[in-house]
From TrEMBL:
First and last residue of the signal peptide: none
Annotated InterPro entries: DinB/YfiT-like, DUF1706
Protein name: ClbS/DfsB family four-helix bundle protein
Annotated source species: Lentilactobacillus diolivorans
Lineage: Bacteria, Bacillati, Bacillota, Bacilli, Lactobacillales
Highest taxon above the source species: Bacteria
Length: 171
């Protein structure tokens, strides 16, 4: 699938890929879902991947709320993070959730995915995919941020879980 270029494709791909991700996870045994990945430094298990998605959903929702609803100019990444240092932010997210149970991570990401879909659905195609439609999106579009926080991020998660599956088969 190519990167979504309109609202309909964004909503369709996000739902499709989220379902694909959850189905993939459901195909793992409970033990496999809890197992530590043998190939990763930061996201070490299914829970970590789901929490990563959840936290990026939260970034998107908070950013939209601050800028669109509250009219409070706010960057996408919270201070002190920048696009050069967001990796450190991801590590912070990981650290904050080391005691979060997998069942809770599944619930959090399911609810945050639904909340993001509601946010996306309220905007017109033009508002989502016209570059600089909102001054707070900089030189890009709101839709680009939404794609990155949903469909593209789900692709990343699917690849991680598939790699975990392959690793388990080779053991």
């Amino acid at each position: 699938m190519s990167r979504p270029q309109n609202k309909a494709a964004l909503l369709q791909q996000s739902e499709f890929k989220f379902k694909k991700l959850t189905t993939l996870i459901d195909q793992l045994t409970p033990e496999q879902q809890q197992a530590t990945f043998l190939f990763e430094d930061r996201d070490r298990n299914v829970r970590d991947v789901l929490i990563h998605l959840y936290e990026w959903h939260q970034l998107l929702i908070k950013w939209i709320n601050a800028n669109f609803y509250d009219h409070r100019p706010t960057p996408f990444l919270p201070k002190p993070y920048t696009w050069k240092t967001y990796g450190t932010m991801n590590v912070t997210f990981w650290q904050q959730h080391q005691t979060t149970p997998l069942t809770e991570a599944k619930d959090l990401v399911t609810k945050s995915h639904a909340a993001v879909m509601v946010e996306i659905d309220q905007f017109s195609n033009e508002a989502l995919f016209t570059k600089q439609f909102f001054d707070w999106t900089g030189t890009t579009s709101l839709g680009s941020y939404c794609v990155s926080s949903t469909a593209s991020h789900y692709d990343w998660a699917i690849k991680k879980i598939r790699k975990h599956q392959r690793t388990l088969k080779n053991m």
